[in-house]
Design goal:
By secondary structure, the protein is an alpha+beta fold. The protein folds into 2 domains: 4-82, 3-Layer(aba) Sandwich (Glutaredoxin); 89-200, Glutathione S-transferase Yfyf (Class Pi), Chain A, domain 2, CATH 1.20.1050. The chain has 9 helices and 4 strands, in the order βαβαββααααααα. It has helices spanning 13-24, 44-49, 68-78, 89-106, 112-121, 124-146, 161-175, 185-194, 198-203, and strands at residues 4-8, 29-33, 57-60, 63-65. The protein has a 4-stranded mixed β-sheet with strand order 2-1-3-4. The longest helix has 23 residues, at 124-146. The protein starts with a strand and ends in a 12-residue tail after the last helix.
């Protein structure tokens, strides 16, 4: 079958999730950068892999998957250790809920394509207000959802699916968007815990092959 291939961009939070999953599973993979700022996503060869022109994309032999959630669930099915979903049905549902909040309620509203559109329509101050509102609304929902079931990580003391989606979003809040995390102590605690895990640290944007020398 050969080595897995991951088409990724250093700053993409969607690709960041998949990098965590691959590292947690102990899987060796080839990192193929798709530099979004240079328009690599519009290259005809890449569009054959992902007609949507987005990252990440995973190639596993003849299998091509283009959505981060689908990629992660594929990896969990094919490589079940360590599992990314708890056996407890309530905790499993909470993992799905947290994942959905990030995947549907936050990330799509602060991605690069939307940023570029907003820059044509509104000024920088209004753009910052938009981003802050989107993230804080999502973080408020996550804080309320997870405060009663959290341990060291989102649903206890084991890393599960929700953590793979939370970690990139919280990392970006701290390092890219300068979100005030004081109202979200549970999420801030997760961030500290993630920073202690090599699999998470290896996956952060600053540690990727295509990370610019000056950020």
């Amino acid at each position: 079958m050969g080595k897995l291939k991951l088409y990724s961009y250093w700053r993409s939070s969607c690709a960041h999730r998949v990098r965590i999953a691959l590292t947690l599973k102990g899987l060796d993979y080839e990192y193929i950068p798709v530099i979004l700022l240079k328009g690599d996503q519009f290259d005809p060869d890449f569009k054959k892999i992902n007609p949507m022109g987005t990252v990440p994309a995973l190639v596993d032999g003849d299998v091509v998957i283009n959505d981060s959630f689908a990629i992660i669930m594929y990896l969990d099915d094919k490589y079940p250790e360590p599992p990314l979903l708890p056996s407890d049905l309530h905790k499993r549902a909470v993992n799905y809920q947290a994942t959905s909040i990030v995947m549907s309620g936050i990330q799509p509203h602060q991605n690069m394509a939307l940023f570029r559109y907003l820059e044509e329509k509104i000024n920088a101050e209004e753009k910052t207000a938009w981003i802050t509102n989107v993230i804080t609304k999502g973080f408020t929902a996550l804080e309320n959802l997870l405060v009663s079931c959290a341990g060291k990580y989102a649903t206890g003391d084991e890393v599960y699916l929700a953590d793979l989606f939370l970690a990139p979003q919280i990392h970006a809040a701290f390092n890219r968007f300068q979100i005030n995390m004081e109202p979200y102590p549970t999420l801030a605690k997760f961030h500290e815990s993630y920073n202690e895990l090599p699999a998470f640290q290896n996956a952060v944007p600053e540690n990727q092959p295509d990370t610019p020398s000056t950020i």
